[in-house]
Design a protein that fits this description.
The structure is a single chain. The protein has two helices and six strands; from the N terminus they run E-E-E-E-H-E-E-H. Strands 1, 2, 3, 4, 5 and 6 form a six-stranded mixed β-sheet that branches. The chain is globular. It is an alpha+beta fold.
């Protein structure tokens, strides 16, 4: 698992939104990167938070989306089947639904982007 420090200068807004049955996670995916990694949380122009993730897979036939789900599931030790893309399947900006406890997801996200 590769997690770097948060991207934004100030304390970033959370990219997590609690919904019935789990959480929604706003993600900005960069395909064809040099390595798979969770880069951190950034603040968008509208003030909302977004998790920046890079994968080596190409954006063809869902390969980058699969690599995104594989990376998050492995990094956070959660089942791949509990993560699904609910918006932006063909866009760099995506919304994932994660079937997991909101407090656990906040902890996992904070552990991942905490400054080392």
């Amino acid at each position: 698992m590769v997690c770097d420090r948060p991207i934004a200068d100030g304390p970033p807004e959370s990219p997590l939104t609690v919904v019935a049955g789990g959480c929604r996670l706003a993600v900005k995916l960069t395909p064809k990167a040099s390595r798979n990694r969770i880069e951190g949380v950034a603040v968008e122009a509208d003030g909302g938070g977004i998790l920046k993730v890079s994968v080596t897979a190409v954006p063809e036939d869902g390969k980058a989306n699969k690599a995104l789900i594989d990376l998050l599931a492995k990094s956070w030790k959660i089942a791949k089947r509990s993560i699904s893309i609910v918006a932006g399947a063909t866009d760099r900006r995506k919304v994932l639904f994660i079937e997991n406890d909101a407090d656990d997801m906040r902890r996992l996200l904070n552990d991942c982007v905490r400054t080392r």
